[in-house]
């Protein structure tokens, strides 16, 4: 047997050069299904849920904090009828030249409405674009615009809140607007926090959302104008800040931050341990990241067939970073990591609070960046995602790791799709619909190639004695792409995908 294996090694020369040549010359890696699949013994790893045993509820439970934060975030169990305002600077070239170059105020307004629609029991009652020459430090809007808003509120008495779709308003601006308009005023930060609170189900998510709240509260405490302190304490401003004194509020936030940081450090350690466990460490890891609602969960569901994954037409439906096992056409098992989505115009602290769980994605072998090409704003969205990923310590490796999936092609006209395909280089972008399945086969072929190369795996053929211990080992340890019984049935040639470490074990066990 040693002789046959050596013969094989000689015949194919260095494993890597054979494999690379083969992969390059091969249009598709999807080979006919192996004959004897049932007997291939895969390592089965089903449960990737963490058994992190920290009592997060007791870390989070703090009545004074709850009372204080609820006043600031104006959490409402009954929802609101909202006037959505998308502000923009009039006559300013920033929409064309600045960081928002690929979008328009109209598209931003649509997204602002989608944020409100995502909150259960909140409804968009009315919406408007509001162009201003510049943003006012005291009221955010100029007096003319405030008068216009008042007019709308007078006409539509059912409006119970205003959402100003800018990333963050100063405490002073919120207080002044609320005193003028007599309804609570929200910015993107506070709306996203409400969504996070509604969607956080697991203790990991709850903890990270709690962390995401702190920078906002801190800026409220800091920016709190002294002259208003008594009126706020007495609750004459909507919500008010309660009766907690400024120094006490600072201490409250400091204490909470310390507790949360400690818990998050424990979460990080736990995730790190899981990542390096032999159970998970042997899998290629494929992170799926992208703008919120782009189809990350849908893609993973399509690739794994996992029924428990529930894609939803909501922003930030997924807050937990979770792993899901999938099988590539070459029978290699991989873990797909579902992640929290990104969104423009929110302070970076918000998404960065999720880094403890996003580290699983940071340590991935391949990063699928999924775009929703049916969204007219997708260029701006994908740019924003790339900018955020760069900030999230993906470092210099990022461009090499990224594999782009342009999703939802079923929602765009054929000629528009052709136009897009001409505009976007297609060597690293694959157009698909996770809904209809169009383009998924070609995408998966290419994803598989990328995973094999990124994880230092190679594909090769091994000829062994039929039914011998080598065959047994191969079936147990390696993804088998195909196998052929030689005419005399004495030998079988296996096509397998291997890492260098696995090949070394094979050589050690059977060749010497
Ligand atoms: N028409 C169409 N709809 C799709 C496609 N892929 C996903 N969707 C829909 O888009 C919505 C969002 O899908 P998800 O998979 O939840 O998106 P996500 O990126 O995980 O979203 P978040 O977790 O909220 O960030 C759902 O209603 C999906 O059914 C597609 O290819 N075509
Ligand atoms: Mg999702």
TrEMBL record:
The keyword Transcription does not apply. Keywords: Coiled coil, GTP-binding, Magnesium, Metal-binding, Nucleotide-binding. SUPFAM superfamilies: P-loop containing nucleoside triphosphate hydrolases. One of its GO terms (molecular function) is GTP binding. It comes from the Eukaryota. PANTHER family: GTP-BINDING PROTEIN 6-RELATED, GTP-BINDING PROTEIN HFLX. This is GTP-binding protein 6. It comes from Frankliniella occidentalis (Western flower thrips). The gene is LOC113204572.
